[in-house]
Amino acid sequence: MERKAGKLLAVIFALCLWQLAAMTIDSKILLVSPVEVAVRLTTIWQTEGFWTSIWFSFYHIAGGFFLALFLGIALAALAGRFRRIETLLWPFLVTIKTVPVASFVVICLIWLSAENLSVFISFLIVLPVVYGNVLEGIKNEDKLMLEVGTVFKMPLLRRLLYIHLPQLKPFIMSACATALGMAWKAGVAAEIIGTPDGSIGKQLFYSKIYLDTDDLLCWTVIIVIVSVLFEKLFMLGLKALYGRLERG
């Protein structure tokens, strides 16, 4: 309870600083106040294409995240089993981690349509995070537990569910908690550059072009809300799944 109260006070403090900065600058083109953004939030949902923009960005970015999650776990499993695969994947994953998102976006626009760009960019950003965390977890698995599965000749699926996944829980949870926010940052950045029709990124781009600062900040707040809701729901679902596994 005390921690939640502290977070609430921190949010209030941040909003007060924002309000003070807006009053000091005194220019709606440069910075609007949080009150004006809050008022605009009560009407922006009525604008044409509001819900379709949110849905477009959500399913593209979420799609990229889930693709990277499943492939990252699969590649980590292979790399943990075969050292040569880890070595083979190393230069690709280092490149993905070090090259700026904007560079990937520009390069990928040559190969992909703007509509599918956010899926691929979200996938690229999330993949090394999931892969690295899960591979580290595999390397730190309890060897005795693995031997128990071998001695009792447990089927592969049961070994996966009751030996491997429980040991990998903190690594998978950590990877997902980190990667979810990164997926939204990278996905929306890709949309701003590619400006696909019906996306949040295009709404942000046009708000900037027309110096519509209240809409620009409104869409930014909406991105934060949708991203946080998706993260909370996904993490709750993941915890529930692990809870069922632990109960057998």
Walkthrough of the structure:
With 248 residues, the protein is mainly alpha-helical. Helix content is 86%, strand content 0%. The protein has ten helices and no strands. The chain has helices at 2-25, 34-44, 50-81, 83-98, 101-111, 114-139, 143-151, 156-194, 200-209, 213-247. α8 packs antiparallel against α10 (213-247). The radius of gyration is 22 Å and the shape is globular. It starts with a helix and ends with a helix. The mean pLDDT is 87.
List the helices and strands and how they pair.
Blueprint: H1 2-25, H2 34-44, H3 50-81, H4 83-98, H5 101-111, H6 114-139, H7 143-151, H8 156-194, H9 200-209, H10 213-247
Helix pairs in contact: 2-10, 3-4, 3-6, 3-8, 4-6, 5-6, 5-8, 6-8, 8-9, 8-10, 9-10
Short description:
The protein has helices at 2-25, 34-44, 50-81, 83-98, 101-111, 114-139, 143-151, 156-194, 200-209, 213-247.
Largest sheet data: none
Which band does the percent of strand residues land in?
A: under 5%
**Which percent bin holds the helix content?**
over 70%
Give the radius of gyration. Answer: 22 Å
Estimate the global geometry from the Cα principal axes.
globular
Alpha plus pi helix count: 10
Number of strands: 0
Would you tell me the structural class of the helices and strands?
mainly alpha
- The topology string of helices and strands comes to HHHHHHHHHH
**Would you tell me the overall average pLDDT?**
87
How far apart are the first and last residues' alpha carbons, in Å? 32 Å
